[in-house]
Write a structure and sequence with these properties.
Length: 495
């Protein structure tokens, strides 16, 4: 299920901006407050398959009660404890004053920001001191700096531009600073001043992968690291693999190029003995992780490589397959919680990648299907070999081909969606492609199919006026199907 993105207006620190009484700073003071962009923090889910010591877990039932902020303005570290209250549907901290003395500006270095639950007592004293005996740390930002060499293990999961840094605070300036937070033990809060703060809540997702290689000729692997496995060379050996994690950054609807639309995030491999996936593929499955922003839909891709020889017995990580998915809809790990794959068949067949579910088929764009009907100038052979044919009626007045040939100029949502839906339908029929392997695509496809079913009940027509909700839904479904047809989301584009 795709996440629903809620846009919240930016808060500006002015008198009367909220119901909470905020005193105007005197001439030599500046103030900062922290505004949490989501009323509910989405905390880290339990990490599967023995990685409890790798990704910490938060209790989602714990409320956000108060924060501790440590900062330095050149006089040494100062820590303040500030209550969190709710304003206009958002959690906001009480403002904190910084003494500017006679300076027009000052540098503020933030070294820690911690969000706590007050525990069972639920009490804050009048002087803002707290009984912390049973309090629980909820979320904060991992230690690290952009380009740093000693960053914490979890700094990789946040945007480095939203990490720890020193900022300049001027009198009476108002800024909005975005920070990323995770569940973690040693945390640092970054990027604040005379300001309201927004916090991006990020859930670190994880999966475990394990592969087998079926070898017909063991001599191909002689002298390789596979010989160093505990049982040496076998006809069935654990795979040494690498998985690259990428995030889709887009380049406009229908404007795609090889890898130009993807941001490289991390690379994981299980070669050696560094504790991720055992020793040279043996033992534990290999854990991979990716940062899923709780407040927006994001498209990720896993590129799988396996360490294999060529005909000259030269070993390298060789590409096997790609898997694209939204948010946490990663490849189905099955009942055992591990994504398994097998290369080869332990007989004489060449190396073949077999990863359940079987992701056969490939996709083509609406332009291809429009120009491959076997009829008309410039058309090549008829590629419509499934149940749907170009001359079949799509609506009361147009065939499938006529709909594809009708421009969506002016932003008509009917044709924007119909073009991508028809292309997706033909990809499913002619691929064949099983949409059950990509839940987001299936959801968009099924919604479009229901919209265009022409069953005489609530039928839609191209010329009707659509509500804003209908327009939004149709364009969103079209965007998902466009990614599918272009090979970004799904089994990939046909070569």
């Amino acid at each position: 299920m795709r996440k629903i993105v809620v846009v919240i207006a930016t808060l500006v620190l002015v008198l009367g901006a909220c119901k909470e009484n905020v005193s105007s700073p005197v001439e030599n003071n500046a103030e900062f407050s922290i505004s949490i962009s989501e009323a509910d923090f989405v905390t880290l889910k339990s990490a599967p398959l023995g990685v409890e010591d790798y990704i910490p877990t938060c209790d989602e039932s714990l409320s956000l009660d108060y924060a501790k902020v440590t900062f330095d303005t050149g006089k040494g570290d100062e820590t303040v404890t500030i209550p969190i209250f709710k304003v206009a549907g958002k959690y906001v901290t009480q403002p904190v004053k910084i003494d500017m003395e006679t300076a027009e500006s000052i540098q503020v270095t933030i070294s820690e920001f911690l969000v706590y639950n007050m525990g069972d007592d639920g009490e804050i004293d009048e002087d803002l001191s707290l009984d912390t005996s049973d309090d629980v740390l909820v979320k904060a930002t991992p230690h690290g700096v952009f380009g740093g060499s000693n960053n914490s293990a979890y700094f990789q999961f946040i945007n480095p531009n939203n990490g720890l840094r020193t900022i300049t605070l001027s009198k009476f300036t108002k800024e909005e600073i975005v920070i990323d937070v995770l569940c973690y033990d040693e945390l640092v809060y970054d990027n604040f001043g005379f300001v309201w703060f927004n916090i991006n809540a990020i859930t670190v997702r994880s999966q475990c992968w394990f592969g087998d290689i079926c070898v017909a000729d063991k001599t191909l692997f002689e002298g390789s690291v596979y010989e160093q496995q505990q049982n040496g060379l076998q006809y069935d050996m654990p795979a040494i693999m690498k998985i690259d994690v990428l995030r889709f950054i887009g380049n406009g609807l229908g404007n795609y190029g090889p890898d130009m639309n993807w941001e490289f995030l991390y690379s994981y491999n299980n070669m050696g003995t560094f504790g991720n996936g055992g020793e040279n593929g043996e033992g534990d499955c290999m854990t991979i992780a990716w940062p899923d922003n709780d407040n927006m839909d994001e498209l990720f891709r896993f590129d799988l490589y396996v360490y294999l020889p060529d005909i000259n017995k030269q070993f390298d990580y060789r590409f096997q397959n790609s898997y694209s998915f939204y948010n946490n809809e990663a490849p189905n790990p099955g009942d055992d919680g591990v994504v398994d794959f097998v290369i080869g068949s332990c007989f004489s067949e060449p190396f073949i990648i077999i990863i359940p579910p079987d992701n056969d088929g490939c996709t083509l764009t609406q332009g291809y299907w429009k120009n491959h009907t076997g009829d008309g100038p410039g058309n090549q052979t008829n590629a419509w070999q499934g149940a749907t044919q170009p001359d079949d009626p799509f609506n009361a007045t147009q065939t499938y081909l006529e709909v594809l040939e009708t421009s969506a100029a002016g932003g008509n949502p009917y044709y924007i969606l119909a073009h991508q839906y028809i292309a997706a339908l033909l990809n499913v029929e002619n691929g064949p492609v099983d949409l059950n392997n990509w839940p987001d695509v299936k959801e968009a496809f099924d919604n479009a199919a229901e919209l265009f079913d022409n069953d005489g009940i609530d039928d839609i027509v191209p010329e009707q006026t659509f509500t804003e909700q209908q327009k939004s839904d149709m364009v969103n479904w079209s965007s998902v199907l466009d990614l599918f047809n272009n090979g970004i989301l799904g089994p990939g584009h046909c070569d």
